[in-house]
User: Fold Elongation factor G from Dentiradicibacter hellwigii.
Amino acid sequence: MGQMTPRTVALVGHGASGKTTLVETLLATSGAITTRGSIEKGNTVCDFDPQEKELGYSINSAIASTQWLETPIHLIDTPGYPDFAGQAIGALAAVDTALIVINAQSGIELMTERMMKLAAARKLCRMIVINKIDADNVDLPKLLGDIRERFGHECMVLNLPTEHGQAVIDVLSNASGESDFESVADAHRALIDQIVEEDEDLLAKYLEDGAEPAPETLRAPFEKALREGHLIPILFVSAKTGAGVPQLLDTLAKLAPAPAEANPPPFYKGAADDENATPFEVSPEAGKHILAHVFKVVSDPFVGKLSVFRVHQGTLKKDTQLFAGNAKRAFKISHLYRLLGKEHIETDQLQPGDIGAISKVEEIEFDSVLHDSHDEDNIRLKPLTFPQPMQGLAVETKKKSDEQRLFDVLHKLEIEDPCFTVERHVTTNETVIRGLGEMHLRAKLARMAQQYKLELATKPPQIDYRETITGKAPGHCRHKKQTGGAGQFGEVMLRVEPLPRGEGFEFVDEVKGGAIPGVFMASVEKGVRQALADGVVAGFPVSDIRVIVYDGKSHPVDSKDIAFFTAGRKAVIEAIRAASPIILEPIVNIDIDAPETAVGDLSGDLSGKRGQITGTQSRSAGTVSLSGKVPLAELDDYQGRLKSLTGGQGSYSIRFSHYAAVPATTQQQLAAKHKIVGLDDE
Assistant:
């Protein structure tokens, strides 16, 4: 591969590990910017959003590019707090290497582990960067031990701090030297041993004569070890002083994989729900058909919709005609941009491995594949797994005149964030926004107020309960109506049985001999579906149920769609009421980071809310990570409770786990309020 092939790198890790400052220092050291900004002054390249400047941490991913040793390096800075994980996870689809940044003071935190696992699952090359090595009260030998214990002994130092964290010494090219801790000679030997294991000839020669392999023979096995996760290099830096930053740039330019050296991105050909979809090999060659993948969409009030993508194959030029996904109509690229934070720098072309952007093309969506030939229709990139947004807020506009605008704005926010959803509940007449946590939703509300001048009133939403059955039961309804000349007649016999949790709904037609004419069976199913959607016990959707229609009667003149619709609806309601129905509630996994001293109070509080702690893990000095399960209904004011129990030191995030039966008293309270229209009032 030529020296000019780009390297693509995402900086991921927990909040406050210093990713944005590190990007700033990388850009300044490599000459991409002349002066280094700071978080405190609110003038960094990557935290350019007014909200980020005000809060002092990243809430969006941001792209910046630079060059080192004539090699283009594309950097994606990502947010570190779990509430904004959608932006960090999305960036993994665009890069070949994940740099997991760890704060030397706070050690391995929640997002360190999460991003480490996600990057491994995506088969990305991983490197660990330990930042803030010059800070007070850091215990680097202990942190190194923790990393090896948590992530395996393939985590090996590529350099070591020296001169009390003011500089670093490279252990790949130095067989001896001074470091602040650990022996350079031992680290060098261990690293060489690990690398040569990837090359049989090199290993045989090395074992035979014991001589050091020549440095140029090590790059290919180093790459292979990176690709296979056999080696996860650890580098030490101080983003503040710049110690170790030139060495990190050297590593990215010389040792991080170029697109052709990385594990191939998991493209496949076939419809999204096609089980027989086949893997599709993308080749990062400039002369082939264009294939690019959109990993980020931004609704910008000034530039309109901005689609940010990675080019995987072919050369993208200005004025090219492209298709988005399976669209039949092409669009023309009138402006092609490279990004440096908020700056959009016009460019004429982008090569494989480059990250770029196009504005004002409405048909492009998050996760779209862009291509220039119908040969590449139906090609997709294996989707990443995003956490399900569980934290909800019911919102309404303070001004009646803003109602229509609210949905336009919410739609814009929804298309750019895979972890933000908008639900319209007709039964409760609520508009509910859902995100990954309180910080996430607060950031959306602030953005609506600042950017779109939209003031909203909020309240806790109704819980997304479900209903299901625990037994089998028959149901029957003969619907007969005579009004003047024309009548209605339809009779339906069915039975219901439970399906395993999460299976949804199954409709089975077992009617023999045309007892219900085929033409009316769709109406029976429609009536059944209507009853399930409206709920039977307490007005919540019924799921995990099989409905088997086995008999019925019709009338040659009076049978009509409406008659079978009504009979199907009433028969299934009767059956569900007889099948020991229960109400289910969402249970969430909760992760809490808090001071060790608060563990007892937090466990007590959670068990008082029908929850339980399932695991604890010590973090850095005096802090601990708790994981547990708790009903979503009990987390109404959890941020406030957590604040008072931890003196403002705690944070939490939730993820959907499963549905479980509500306590009998709750079921009685919910059921008491419910009446089925057209049945209970007859």
